[in-house]
Amino acid sequence: xxxxxxxxxxxxxVYQYLLNFKKLSGNLDIIKSLGEDMNAQDMTKWALPNYxxxxxxxxxxxxxxxxxxxxxxxxxxxxLLSSYCCCKLEDPxxxxxxxxxxxxxxxxxxxxxxxxSKIIQRFHSKKGSSIKKSKLLxxxxxxxxxxxxxxxxxxxxxxxxxxxxxxQFFQMIDDYCIYVESLIHALIxxxxxxxxEKGLAFNQHYIARIKxxxxxYVKDIxxxxxxxxxQPSQRMKTLKMVIKELLRVLDSVLWPLLNDYARQHKARVxxxxxxxxxxxxxxxxxxxxxxxxxxxxxxxxSWAIDL
Length: 307
Hints:
- The chain is mainly alpha-helical.
- Helix 3 packs across helix 5, helix 5 packs across helix 8 and helix 9 runs antiparallel to helix 12 (232-252).
- It is globular.
- The protein has 15 helices and no strands.
- The longest helix has 27 residues, at 164-190.
- The chain has one domain.
């Protein structure tokens, strides 16, 4: 780990908080304070590079010495990053979407191979140890869950009339759902499906949706997987794995915290309901039973189901 004494001391504060999590988990003021001394340079030059190395080390093998300790250290970084993102940044939307979601998947998950750094090789004595992408993405998705739920807790505990936190939460979720849908559209482009009966409701929904859907990320995804050099079957397998893990993030969001808000702001939550329908229609077109089952397992709130 790159040495930075003040930041290592801050990381120790986070560790002490996690040791007393049961007692302190409801104290949002403490959580907010964890990342308040961080600045953009601390984040880009120290926190993110160290976090990136740690999750790759852990994802590259199951027989690491002190594996539990490494897991706790990753949890510390995830909470530190989440506190900074939700409480320090005036607008976390771009940071979460561009850096923690799109850039991560584009650089570390979709390419055919992920290069092992020297630090990873030092931690793994076994020759040929390589990063397991499914484990890497699963570890990273925990960070997204912590960010979404922390922002949601802050938003629903606020008594301010102009609640910027609730706006930021929905902006992050909107972007997230767009990217999930983009991945599904990319998967459809790799399938041999010839379409469905025109009268089916989900087919009509999908046809109307693709006419207005922004295809920027779909094109980026298809370009990356096409340049990966892997076989079409492997490309589909990777896309399905990513979609599945990102759907599980949606299942981990603390949606019930929004029930009171939903009753008072039906127009806003109806947008979330439509995004759910867009994802559902795309999955039905893709005809992947595993992903459809994963989608149906999501504990959607009633206000996201009933339009």
